[in-house]
Amino acid sequence: MDNRARTNHNHDSARILVVDDAADTRLMLSLRLQREGYAILTAGSGQEAIELVNKEGLPDLAVLDIMMPGMDGFVVADELRQMGDIPIIFLSALSDTNTKVEGLNRYAEDYVTKPFAFSELLARIRRVLMRVAPDRTLEPELQIDDRLRINFSQQYAVMDDRQITLTPTENRIMHILYHNRGRVLSPGFLLSKVWDPTRKGTVESLWVHVRRLRSKIEPDPDNPRYVLTVRGQGYCLPQRNQKDREATLMQDM
Questions:
Q1: Class at the top of the CATH hierarchy for domain 11-137
Q2: Averaged over 98-114, what is the pLDDT?
Q3: How far apart are CA 174 and CA 191, in angstroms?
Q4: Which part of the chain has CATH 1.10.10.10?
Q5: Which CATH topology does 142-247 take?
Q6: Interhelix angle for 73-83 vs 46-56, to 10°?
Q7: The Cα angle at residue 126 between residues 120 and 132, in degrees rounded to 5
Q8: pLDDT at 59 over 80
């Protein structure tokens, strides 16, 4: 499975998430879009799609069926939009005007009605990616120190010239720490900023995500230099010129 972050902006390197409960549709789109040079992620349900994005990071574009059991396409679109700014194309047998208007007004860049010609869908995908790609070329990599850079908009880190995809939660944790650099942030503060209020996280889940983040960006995850723990207080990203931090900052378990 492709695990590249969203760094290149021509259509040949774009990652597309295809979500449809019809296996034949998923297979057809996956094969044909791969032939066009795209990297494809597929999911057969809304829940599977959310879990996949949490693991692999946000794609450049999502193509979502609307009528799916469990989480329908509108719910999936809402969940994805809470994770980050991602363009969405709905693909659905629902052709009534009200459904189209709701989809376009609330969630989507475009709406394609089934049955459809692949050439039409491909043209719409290209149009959306061409429109959103120029903005991404302006998004900077922020220097943490001489070894680590992060692009929060595109959700990736570069450690010693090795590119690493961050999940939306890992990205949000690091984003909050970066914008409060040098301050110790309590678990409660991080939970209130990182997790959606309707789906509250726990101290245990925060700890798990911190450990996973460290495993990606720390040269030695057991002796972190970036996401540090102040015993009994919380987490901290030190200032670049902070000295002797080992004397006051203690690592996790």
A1: alpha beta
A2: 74
A3: 13
A4: 142-247
A5: Arc Repressor Mutant, subunit A (1.10.10)
A6: 20
A7: 140
A8: yes
Give percent of the chain with pLDDT exceeding 70: 79
Per-residue pLDDT averaged across 132-153, rounded?
76
pTM of the model: 0.56
pLDDT-above-90 percentage for the chain = 34
HEC assignment per residue over the chain:
CCCCCCCCCCHHHCEEEEECCCHHHHHHHHHHHHHCCCEEEEECCHHHHHHHHHHHCCCCEEEEECCCCCCCHHHHHHHHHHHCCCCEEEEECCCCHHHHHHHHHHCCCEEEECCCCHHHHHHHHHHHHHHHHHHHHCCCCEECCCCEEEECCCCEEEECCEEEECCHHHHHHHHHHHCCCCCCECHHHHHHHHCCCCCCCCHHHHHHHHHHHHHHHCCCCCCCCCCEEECCCEEECCCCCCCCHHHCCCCCC
Torsion of Cα atoms, 227 then 229 then 233 then 236, to 10° = -30
Name the segment(s) of the chain with CATH classification 3.40.50.2300. 11-137
Six token digits for residue 245: 């931090």
Separation between Cα atoms, residue 18 and residue 220, nearest integer Å: 36
CA 94 to chain centroid: 28
Q: What's the pLDDT tens digit per position in 60-85? A: 899 999 888 888 888 898 888 877 77
Residue in 34, 32, 39 with CA at minimum distance from that of residue 1: 39
